[in-house]
Write a structure and sequence with these properties.
Elements lengths: L2 H7 L11 H8 L8 H12 L8 E5 L6 H10 L3 E5 L6 H6 L3 E4 L17 E4 L3 E3 L2 H7 L2 H10 L2 E3 L24
Parallel strand pairs: 1-2, 1-3, 3-4
Antiparallel strand pairs: 5-6
């Protein structure tokens, strides 16, 4: 099935996912229209948590039509300086360390490590990856989660691997991982 052809058949006025070329074009031109929900949700998350976007350096790791590209556009529209990276970006850790706001949306478990994040950066991970390899699971999972992996034979893992320290705790808001807050 040709996904582009299917999208072309959708009425842009009913395209609540914001994937139709008309809605993507509206987003590019900062016009009213439907926007992909995950990037829109991330912008709302930043707003509700008082994270200033204007003037900040943002790095989006991932260039998909669903998250990466619309995320970059929304951040640019909010006056961030945006860099879009992918799995073949040279010196990915170095580019990520420049970010005040780091959005990981690449679809590869554990690609972004603590060394990718500068102190004080806001990290938003929208990756969800199924891990079935035991060696990869031992590398990525904390002991409590590893037991569940061994029982089920798989686990869902984020793109960002949290630092293995007592200070890190998952939060329901953007976590300033590198600063230990």
């Amino acid at each position: 099935m040709n996904a582009a052809r299917v999208l072309d058949l959708v009425n842009p006025a009913k395209d609540v996912d914001g994937f139709h070329p008309v809605n993507v074009g509206r987003l590019v031109q900062k016009r009213a229209g439907f926007v992909a929900c995950t990037p829109a949700g991330i912008m709302e998350l930043l707003r509700r948590n008082g994270i200033e976007v204007a003037g900040r350096r943002a790095v989006v790791v991932g260039r998909s039509d669903i998250v990466g590209k619309p995320m970059a556009l929304l951040l640019m529209h909010a006056d961030a300086t945006v860099t879009v990276c992918h799995s073949r970006t040279r010196d990915l850790p170095g580019v990520c360390r420049e970010a005040d706001i780091l959005v990981a949306a690449i679809g590869r478990a554990g690609l972004v490590r603590a060394g990718h994040v500068k102190p004080g950066a806001v990290v938003i991970d929208v990756g969800m990856n199924r891990v079935e390899d035991a060696r990869e699971a031992r590398d990525l999972l904390v002991p409590e989660r590893l037991a569940g992996f061994e029982k089920r034979g798989h686990a869902l893992v984020a793109t960002c691997t949290p630092p293995r320290c007592a200070r890190w705790r998952p939060r329901s808001r953007p976590c300033r991982v590198a600063s230990g807050r």
